[in-house]
Amino acid sequence: MSIEKVSIQDKLALFSDYWSPRIIGELNQQQVKLVKFRGEFIWHHHDHEDEMFLVISGSFTMELRDKSIPLFPGEFIIIPKGVEHRPVAANEVQVMLFEPATTLNTGNQESNLTQRELGKI
Fold it and tell me: How far apart (Å, rounded) are the C-alpha atoms in residues 119 and 41?
């Protein structure tokens, strides 16, 4: 096994599509992912997994059914399992995700945004 550092900016430069997370690391059955998004995602929840969203650049609003929470670079939010949510970004945002390897990006919803097989970069 080779231990190497990871450049987040170098990894982000490898893709440009939205709503398609890429795996950049794994630890303790958790995956570290990068994703770019713009626009509105679908309302969904995860029955068994919590999710953490860390903003690298840009900004977005995490919409919950009872409030909206704006997030900016260097800020993160943890969405507990079972909580319905929807990320919304007026402009491109780059986000790091920490979540269990079993997490499906659209949770309990199936849509054209569902990504069953994630690329590793």
Answer: 20
